[in-house]
Write a structure and sequence with these properties.
- This protein is elongated.
- The termini are far apart.
- It has one helix at residues 2-20, and strands at residues 26-46, 49-60, 65-80, 83-96, 101-102, 106-119, 122-134, 148-159, 166-177, 180-181, 194-195, 198-210, 215-233, 240-260.
- An 11-stranded mixed beta barrel has the order 1-2-3-4-6-7-8-9-12-13-14. Strands 10-11 form a two-stranded antiparallel ribbon.
- The protein has 1 helix and 14 strands; from the N terminus they run αββββββββββββββ.
- It has 261 residues and is mostly beta strands.
- It has a single domain (28-260), classed as Lipocalin.
Length: 261
């Protein structure tokens, strides 16, 4: 009983200390329904190599506002039936609905590695993506990193239905930040340090519909638990002004069309 009471006291002391920590973040939670519409084409210039380009429109604020318009181009190479790799570039144009204008664009580079194995009629794949995003606006590196680097790990299972044009699938993905700035009391007296934490948990389901050999549709739904930290310092003194953990539950419905040359 004495050990139990000591343990409870230690836990209580820790909670009180956390609550009194001036650098502890406050928390804001939101919910949002989102939408995506995408079109792309794929071309195989040589055997086992593909080139792909596309454009995607994203909606937010319960489908009432344009979130972003992004265009992409990428290349992939299939080493064998178990392994492929590639890279792609994405130009991101974010839309500020409050100001009714497009914000400064961001440039994103992805490096992808994927392993695939078939178990009966189920195809399992694990994709590791190193995502690097470059901002074009000026930021304080103690508030936001530039570039921002994230490791995205996605596990996917596709089921090949016999004599059917439909291919249903399930997926689960984790986003892990690699260089998020650590919060400090005053950034002018501190050394920049990086933090690592999971920024997104994603579960999704969808189905691909093969219209023909050259045309394909993809219908999907994602549920995201998304979180990040909004760090704000006083510009002149460098003191910590605000520190907020922003948590968002996102429901995303999407449709994409692909044309294969």
């Amino acid at each position: 009983m004495r050990k139990i009471l000591l343990s409870l006291g230690l836990v209580l002391t820790t909670l009180i200390a956390t609550a009194q920590d001036p650098n502890a973040p406050t928390r804001e939670t939101t919910n949002d329904f989102r939408g995506r519409v995408e079109g792309s084409f794929e071309w195989e210039p040589v055997k086992d190599m593909t080139v792909e380009a596309g454009i995607q429109l994203r909606l937010s604020d319960d489908l009432h506002s344009v979130d972003r318009l992004q265009s992409s181009v990428g290349i992939g190479y299939e080493v064998n039936k178990y392994f492929d790799f590639g890279a792609d570039y994405i130009l991101i144009n974010n839309y500020d609905s409050a100001a009714s204008n497009w914000e400064r664009p961001r440039h994103r580079l992805n490096l992808n590695l994927r392993g695939t194995v078939k178990v009966g009629r189920v195809e399992l794949s694990l994709r590791e993506r190193l995502q690097t995003t470059f901002r074009t606006d000026s930021v304080n590196r103690f508030e936001k990193m530039n570039p921002e680097m994230v490791l995205r790990s996605r596990l996917m299972a596709e089921y090949n239905i016999r004599h059917s044009r439909w291919t249903p699938y399930l997926l689960f993905e984790l986003n892990n930040t690699l260089n998020a700035p650590k919060v400090v009391a005053n950034y002018k007296d501190a050394v920049l340090q990086c933090d690592n934490f999971i920024t997104r948990y994603r579960a999704g389901l969808g189905a691909k519909f093969h219209i023909s050999r050259y045309h394909r549709l993809d219908f999907y739904y994602y549920f995201d638990y998304d979180r990040g930290y909004n760090i704000d310092y006083k510009g002149n003194k460098g003191d910590l002004k605000g520190y907020v953990e922003e948590v968002e539950f996102r429901h995303t419905f999407g449709i994409s069309y692909k044309f294969k040359l």
